[in-house]
Amino acid sequence: MKTSHIIGIIIIAAAIGIIITTAGDASSYVTFDTAQEMALNGNENSIHVVGELKKKNGEIVGIRPSVDKLSFSFVMVDDNKKEQKVFYNEPMPADFQRSEKVVVIGSYKDDLFVAEKILMKCPSKYQENTVKAEM
Amino acid sequence: MIHEFIGGLGHLFVVVAFISALYSAFCFFRAAQAKELSEERSWKVNGRVAFYLHTIAVVGIVFSLFYIIYNHYFEYHYAWSHSSRRLPAHYMISCFWEGQEGSFLLWLFWHALLGVIVILTNKYWEAPVMTVFSLVQVFLASMILGVVIPGLNIKLGSSPFILLRDAIDAPIFKEQPDFVPKDGTGLNPLLQNYWMVIHPPTLFLGFATTVIPFAFCIAGLWKRRYREWVRPALPWALFSGAILGLGILMGGYWAYETLNFGGYWNWDPVENAVYVPWLFLIAAIHTMITFKNSDTALKASVVLVITTFVLILYSTFLTRSGILGNSSVHSFTDLGLSGQLLIYLLFFTIGSVVLAVIRWKEMPTSEKEASTYSREFWIFIGALVLCLMGFQVLIPTSIPVWNSIVELFGGVSNLAPPADQILFYSKFQLWFAVGVALLSGTGQFFWWKNMKKEELWSSLTVPVIITLVLTTIIVVVKNVADPSYIILLLGGVYTVVANTKILINVLKKNPKLSGGAVTHIGIGLMLIGVMFSAGYSKVVSLNTTGMLISKESSTEFNNENLLLFINEPKEMADYSLKYKGERLEPINASDYISRNDIRKTSEPHMVIAKRDIEAEGEVIFQKNDTIEIAPENTYYEIEYTDNRGKKFTLYPRAQVNESMGGLLASPDIKRGLAKDLYTHVSSIRDPNNDVEWSDMEEFEISPKETFFVNDYVAKVDKLERIPEVEGVELEKEDVAVKATIIVQGEESEYIAQPIFLIKNGMVGRIADEISDLGLKLTLLNIYPEKNSFAIGANTRQKDWVVLKAMEKPFINVLWFGTLLLMVGFGIAIKRRYSEFRKMREKGME
């Protein structure tokens, strides 16, 4: 066997290995129910949950900053309308209350969903969509 | 008035640019295919003229758009959404590339310029190379064409010359079709930074130059000159590698210094989209050099050069089609160009792959087996490692594409990118980096062609020993404990040591050849810098007491942030910190001014000094001076005292930024040789939110009498009648009185100037706030008969700021390595270009 063949085989094996590990390490978009199930089965991987902040009569409810302002918790409603309290160990981002959609990345610790990272989608991001009539 | 002419002219230039590129591609194609010399010559002249016309048209587009922006023609959507009247001229250039159309224009512009250079510097290669070039221009110009194909109702491209009334459906245009907004919405304030002026052009020049090696490669395959295309393509490939690399690192530095992404690299899909093609380009450069020296690796070069360009197109598709959606923080918005972008990508991918497959069998291959002790063999392995390194990033970045494909066939895929991207990518990239480091250290030792086993080992002994000693010292002194980091450090040090030895030898013989060694020393230093600054970055604002997050959960957490109340010192790791208040940035002075020393006016960017403002003992603004400020930015003065008693001050920034969804923080960095101290605010009192004031406390006092508000000593210094009040029109019989109240704070004296006003027989009161002390004072009443007056005081929670601080050790080693990398590339480009020129002068190509 020529050296080039050996190298070829090693390269192909490495490429396949990369694809497999990517599939293994990839997270997934799930609902809170699935996330809780995963936690009960001992699966501690971080997952993505997409949802909205809980609203009552148009007002956001359930946001509770900690006394020292260094962390906060909030109530999030996922696509299946399940409500869940989420904890985040960082101060509340300034634009948090304006976000239309929230993606939390994290996992369940007991009954609490602990987010490691929060992604927000804000209504006016990047593009203006109306003109104010200013003479 | 609507200035229709300039927009129409711009649009005409776009159409001319598109058609001339198409015609130029056709002419150059005919020239390349021509059998007879005279026929070839006339087609070539035609193509050249068409390309020059194209270049003039592109410059015309740039001119028209700049004219619109410069003259504030806000009836145009582009000017309205990216510029404003107050924008300084140098940022007007940045408006070009803030929008997606403008960044296509920038790309188009670089290509046009590079095309002219290729025409002027090549003889034989002109026709086939320019065919590819012009075709690329056709696709790029189509992106900003903004033409609807009649009958099919398909819109081709998005024009930057569209009028606001056509772009946005606002009710005002129904009533007044000629309505022109007074001011634009402005360039995003976060991007008003000099990096926004230099980073995008550099990156796009890097993008643009990748087309040159690709065009030479396609020309070589097409004209069956399989060996000859490498020589002219190599200097350009090196140039491209240098500029693209520089662009990427500038982006990283910008992210680190201003954008507060936490670090310089976050493995965001947009970042990955340029990193991957760059790695393949570097691999391509290595195989091309190998081919030039030994006739091997030609096929690999062809494959890699094509792959690099295809990846550039793929990354354009990823970042501009909107497919990344939720997974990226800074991709462009979807302009409805996805279809066009996909056709662009597929055209060049399929075209080049088909051509390569047809010619594959004809390509010369070297029959001799590369020896394991040859330089070429190890360079080739290095190129392969670089490819795998890129591949490992490419796959996860493409997850959204995979989801879309699955959905296209009716399936459901809920795959998300890895949750902790930095951790995920780092754990793989680290080992590839070790591979690259070891290979680039050793590979350089195989001087010319083959080497004997014994010779190699003897020349390696000294560098290996030095490496081991140096690494051991660093590990012990800097306390590096993680085994994988020790190995990366070993690799980095080895590369530096081995290449330094090579460099010394080369400098003695022929300094022109030193490019490789210098570049590789740069890479080694960069790896060491990355290892320390990323691996040993530590949060110093850490509170390690461990708190219980809630009753339901038993999990304990450490806070990584620190809450500071104004003028109350707090301890953190090796420092004592004190927050000293909010500061503003005057446009025409380099020092910050305190918010307490100024009074607002009705214009947000103009404020008035309440007192003489001093900086370093000199008065920079006199009392009642009008000062122009950047109203979006607030700086937070944080005084650090380290454990040796040395003091320094940092000014992290927060910016009110509506278009980015609220408040944005930018760090301030205390730079040191051994480490950077990186500080940013993570939460502040929202200036737009209403604050809760306590109930008013009333004092009746006489002049110069002291009284206590919120435990601070205060006194009324003087009371004066003032002729005018900002924002209020005073008639003859109206009265306005201003009180000057001095409050003694912990650190300094503060002035409050509430106003008491009688207008048309009605009483008005304008309160004044001392934000540092959380105090609002109102002049309630004046009793001339008793020679006294009533002051009302409200208090609120004192000012606070939540802060995060990190240490980034040896980050400067990374920046220094970058600099060396660029110098090395520069030396190599010079050498390869002079080789090409010599051959051209001999009439070889």
Instruction: Please report the distance between the alpha carbons of the first and last residues of chain B.
Output: 57 Å
Number of strands of chain A: 9
Find the count of extended strands of chain B (DSSP E, 2+ residues).
32
Based on Cα principal axes, name the global outline of chain B.
Answer: globular
Helical coverage of chain A, percent range: 10-25%
Strand arrangement in the largest pleated sheet of chain A: 2-6-7-9-8
Look at the structure and give the CATH class of chain A: Mainly Beta
CATH topological fold name of chain A: OB fold (Dihydrolipoamide Acetyltransferase, E2P)
In percent, how much strand structure appears in the residues of chain A? 35-45%
- Largest sheet descriptor of chain B: 7 strands, antiparallel
Structural class of chain A: alpha+beta
Total domain modules of chain A: 1
- Tell me the quaternary state: heterodimer
Portion of residues in helices of chain B?
Answer: 40-55%
Total number of distinct structural domains of chain B: 5
Number of helices of chain A: 2
How is this structure best described in words?
Chain B: GO terms for molecular function: heme binding; heme transmembrane transporter activity. Chain B: Keywords: Cytochrome c-type biogenesis, Membrane, Transmembrane, Transmembrane helix. The complex is a heterodimer of chains A (135) and B (845). Chain A is an alpha+beta fold and 135 residues long. Chain A has a single domain (27-121), classed as Nucleic acid-binding proteins (OB fold (Dihydrolipoamide Acetyltransferase, E2P)). Chain A contains two helices and nine strands, in the order αβαββββββββ. The longest helix of chain A is centred in the first third of the chain and has 23 residues, at 3-25. Chain B is α+β, with helices and mostly antiparallel strands and 845 residues long. Chain B has five domains: 1-187, no CATH class; 233-417; 423-536 and 811-845, no CATH class; 556-684, no CATH class; 697-796. Helices cover 49% and strands 20% of the residues of chain B. In chain B, the strands form eight sheets. In chain B, strands 8, 9, 10, 16, 17, 18 and 19 form a seven-stranded antiparallel β-sheet that branches. In chain B, strands 23, 24, 25, 26, 27 and 28 form a six-stranded antiparallel β-sheet that branches. Chain B starts with a helix and ends with a helix. At the A-B interface, helix 1, strand 1, strand 2, strand 8 and strand 9 of A face helix 15, strand 3 and strand 21 of B.
